[in-house]
Amino acid sequence: MYLHRLELRAIGPYPELVAIDFAALAASGVFLLEGPTGSGKSTIIDAVVFALYGGLAGEGSTHDRLHSQHADPGVEPFVELVFETGAGVYRVRRTPQYDRPKQRGAGTVRQQASAQLFRLAHPGDVVGEPVSSRIPEIGLEVARVVGLDRAQFLQTVVLPQGEFARFLRAPGEDRRKLLQSLFGTQVYDRTADELAARRREVQAEVESADARVRDALSRFAQAAGVVDADEASVPGTLDALRTVAEATAADCTEAVAAAERARVHEHDVAARLQARARRAALLDRRRALDDAAPRVEAARARLALAERAVRVTTPAQGLDAARSRADEHRRRAHDLRARLGVPSHVDTAARRTDLATCVAAVRHLVAVEATLDDRRRARTDAADRAALLVRRVAELDRALESRPTGRAALVEEARTAATAAGDAEAARAEVERLRQLRADLDARDAAAAAVHRAEQVVADRRVRAEALLRTEQALRTRRIAGLAGELGAALVPGDPCPVCGALEHPDVALPQDDHPDAAAVDEAADASRAADGALAEAASALAVERAALERLRAAVGETDADALATRAAAADARVQAAHAAAVRVAEVEGQRTAYDDETRALEREHNTVQADHAVLVATSGAEGSRLDQDAAAVTDARQRAATVAAGSWDASADTDGRIGGTSDDRSLAQLVRQLDDLVARADEVAAAESQATTAAQAVRERSAEVDLALTEQGFDTLDAARAALLQPDASAALQAEVVAAERERAVVDAGLVEPAVVAAATDEGSAAAGSTVALDLDATRTATVAAAERADEATRAAVSASDRSEAAARCAAEVVRAVRARDDTSARSRAVVRLADVANGVTAVNPSGITLGTYVLMRRFEDVVAAANDRLRGMLGGRFTLETSDEREAGSRARRTGLALAVHDHTTDTRRAPGSLSGGETFTVSLCLALGLADVVQAEAGGVSLGTLFVDEGFGTLDPETLDDVIGQLARLTAGGRQVGIVSHVEELKQRIPERIAVRRTAEGGSRVTTTV
Q1: Contact between 705 and 318 (Cβ < 8 Å)
Q2: How far is CA 107 from the centre of its chain?
């Protein structure tokens, strides 16, 4: 990583803009960042670290030191850094959290931190491509493109004050973490962890396989019925079980066959005995049927005679009923004519046709007659309504002519009020502006008083700070003047002089009585710094108050309170007038809208009245014509209906009425009802006479049927047939007797021809001849039960032996599979277990106890130590070299990491701990180790490119010879294109390094930067 340009403002002691061109400074490879103690050299390193990671270089530093106390509080602090890595050129800009003055009123407001990251086409690109403006995302992206996090950056690129020797003195476990992140060797630790996880998995698989073998053997022993079983005894036990199963199966087959034969024999004996008994019973029933045969035949003949008589008497009963119905209908027709007044000589069918024709011709006019009166009244009402509509049209015409004048007056009033209301917004803006101006005027007076108080505080604190600074300078001058006495007091006889190196001290200087010691000087310096801090704080507060006062003065100008009050009163009056006008505008608009609504309502009414009048006139004429026509038609219909109704049953009266005319005051509806009544009477008489004719025809048909039945059934008279009939009870008894005899005969005949009954007859014949053995059913049943019990016992034994053999065979197969799986698992696991033990440092197979990741880091660490020793041999007279060790370091609780470090002192040929080195020795050794680490990291194929290195302080502990060696080693780094920045206040370095960044304090308390290239 290379730094190109750094810009900062209002950061630390730098109130103004500071721009540093690292690319120009590093043209020769090495540049110096120098200045007095506390001037702000380390702040530039903090700015670089803050720009990249949002934090500071020192572990004990806080973010409060970022925002400058010497800058105007309203100035935004920021740091902007342009840097280049293998991923490209980037510009990052960050602002810390700070308090800025409020835009309105007094006091401050907290401004949150912000950040922006851009990818640049080249270092001079001023626009770039935005990458992100979110602080978390920028932190991740910077760590990715740089390849280092903040802690790693401080170990390899920036070595801040007090933390330069951390890598040298760090315990092995801390070195392992740093080296692992730098060289990317986490993959080896993950490999070891993965191997350990696989070791646990395969061990669990082996244990599980052993458990499955034990479970399979246990199930086999249980299935085979043995106490215990092992892998070797399984085949023999399985063969023995199969032999037993085969023997019991043969015994079972024989016993089952014997039982089946006994059962069949028992069934045969029982069936033969039952057939004999059935045949005897059937023979007895057949003899009883033969005895009752004559009585059954007589009953069958009597039933046949009764059946022929029924065939004759049934139509005779229908004839009697038909004669009764014919007499009844004839009598009813005669009575109905007499009751309805219809003469016997009148043809009711012809008369009904005349009446119905007349009713059909006039019926539709009944409804027309009912509406004539209403229609006449409606014609009169329509004439009256037409006159009324004509008068209303005239009234509406007069009202509509006067509407435009009234609306014009309302429109003019609304326009005048709107003009007055248009000034409302400007009046309110003026009122608000004057109110704000009044608040600024009051705030200006308060700010002037605050500035006066702040100036007094600054003056008092400046006097105190100057006095304390003079006191500190006086004490330092006196101590330097008496330094010889201080050294002489500490000189011991025989020790070399720290000034000239002589062992003899003829004239030792003694300290004066008032000689200040280091504690007094430090105390004075602390007091001076505290006073400077208080002065800076007061100056910052004064700057805030002055900025607020200037802002308020610019806002108020030359305005005074009286003129402001007059202008405010006038503005309030304008606002009130505009408000009243706006209210009136709304009122007039409402009135105009209502006026327009009334006008439109009058217009709609005018149109409606005109349309109603036109429709009324058109419909009245047509309705009058139709009314006259309907009245004439109703009159003709009444005359015709009255003539027909007056003739009643006399057909000639209709003709006479039509010729001569009749006078009848009844309505057409009454006449139609009379005609409907006559039609109904004619229909009733015709229906009764039709029923009488039909009944007479039925009598003739039934008489012919009776005569035919007497002839067919062989009876001379109807009385003879009726005498042959049977009562229902007697007929049912005879029928039941015949059916029972026929059914019994069929059952007996069918039973005697059954095969078993026929065989029983054969057995009886053989038994009578003495040629068969007697049948003993009890003895046969006893033999069957005994055979079945023997078959059940043999079956149970065979099933038990077969089930045991099959279960044992299944369990034996499971044992074989489990043993095979266990052997396969054991074979696979051995290589995994050994490899995992070696990678994780298990001492049983890896006596060194070093893990795979540590082993890889040891090789890298050896390269780092070798690179450090390459530089260290040219420093400190070649006295020291570094050596690695796999022993546990003092103070470490971890097991041997293989990354312990020791210092070999070639003068005494002893190994020393890094913590035993002096200050200058520690600096030199730490620098060589840091440079060696940077070399190895950059040389690694997948490592991080470290193009810039900062060394912050530590050079003051070196003597001139060692300083030459250190500068020479740093110069060697520039051959590969690196940039080396040295942060120091040592005067000799200014003579050695021409390119420098000089930091100096200013009279105002801040610092300024001067770059020399």
Answers
A1: yes
A2: 47
